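Field reference: sequence -> structure
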Amino acid sequence: MRNDKITATHIKDFAYCPRLFYFKHILGLPYSDTAKTIKGKDKENLFKKQTYRSKIIKNQNEPGLTKKYGLYLEDEDFKTKLDCLLIDEANKLAFPLQLKNTKTPIKIYQTQRLQLMLESFLIERVLGYKSSYGYIKFALSNELVKLNLNDKSELFEIVEKIRELVRKEVFPKATKYKKRLVDNCYRRFY
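Structure field:
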């Protein structure tokens, strides 16, 4: 991982539990998808088929937006694949859209925010569009949540911690949230 580009997966894994990142990306231990992950991937594919010709954002104030699915964005330091990119060509605006196979949570999770922040950052840096907010579509509750992405300082703090861990290769502390360790293929190492 020393010279690899940082991806949304790296950022989400580190934010979820630094040890998960350490096992997967520093030690290179094999990772197996959980039932939740597999179900989420299936729902993402279904979402793409269902929204290809339909309107995702049903707001009369939004102009007609072009949708692009599975778009890869990459620069010298970062890379990611977007679920969906909504583009307003007339105003040079673009908005990342993530599909989550769950009900809308009471509070948006840090991993979800960070993923959208990275996507927004790369949209601005690589494509040259302004990207001040993004969306999360929660499939089970059929709700679309809009997030302000202007302040990306949280993203860059995590990125710096990742780079430090890669440099030092020191076994990190586990997450303080013990429920996160239950559905984890590395739980026997904790």
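Note: The chain is about 35% helix and 20% strand.
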